[in-house]
Amino acid sequence: MQEIQIDGASSETLEELLTHENPEIQKDAACALGDLIRTKEKDSLSSSCVESLASILGHSNFLVQLEAAIALAEIQDHRGTPLLLAAIRHKRFRLDALRALGTMNDPQAIDNLRYWTRRIFAPWADKLQAAAALCKMADPEGQTYVQQKLKSKKAAERAAAIHFMAECQHPNALQDLGNILNNHLDPMRDVAARSLGLLGNSAAIPLLKNSLLKASSELVDDVNEAIQSLTSR
User: Fold this and answer.
1) Which of 129, 135, 97 has its CA nearest to residue 116?
2) Cα separation of the two ends of the chain
3) What 8-state DSSP symbol labels residue 2?
4) Which of 27-66 are b and which e, b meaning 16 or more Cβ less than 10 Å from the residue's Cβ?
5) What is the pTM of this model?
6) Residue 64 carries which DSSP code?
7) How far apart are CA 36 and CA 95, in angstroms?
8) What is the C-alpha separation between 187 and 174, in angstroms, rounded?
9) pLDDT per residue as tens digits for the range 87-98
């Protein structure tokens, strides 16, 4: 039997694999197509590929459905929204589904995302990912939630909030991350530096360069990498 190669496959090959008889291969092909968009290797997918992804939203295997919905989210095709909303009810799939809903940018998901940010006993990671999805959709409640978590006493939660400020293009990201980077006593200057590189705003370059004046060798590496990321855009 010929081995199926997913890694490095073209979008045309991956599209063909969406109809493979093995659900595992279909799932991996859908995931790989989403990754092509997420990593910006491709700006778009062909109309036939998009329709092939949409067609397996009704697959008998839920994981195939989910990967198709996540891939469709990368191109803001809202046909995957109902499935992602169903997926967030399951702990195993929740974080991936919440992230995809933010990428999907579908207003009909807002109420469900707000429900998770307001749920008192939900894990902090679920609540913050839901808030990040809202923040990515420029929702004020999500923006406020993510920004407030910059003060969290939980190191992992605070680090995630710093990252999400940049990833979700929070309107205060440049100022807040710059303040963290400029605070020589803040233990998360490295996280702020990497996040500023992710922000994609060239106005962060002077802040990053200035931080090199009083930076550890480890921080210097993060700052230089962020500067390189911003200047190569």
Assistant:
1) 129
2) 43
3) P
4) bbbbbbbbbbbeeeebeebeeebbebbbebbebeeebbbb
5) 0.88
6) H
7) 20
8) 18
9) 999 999 999 999
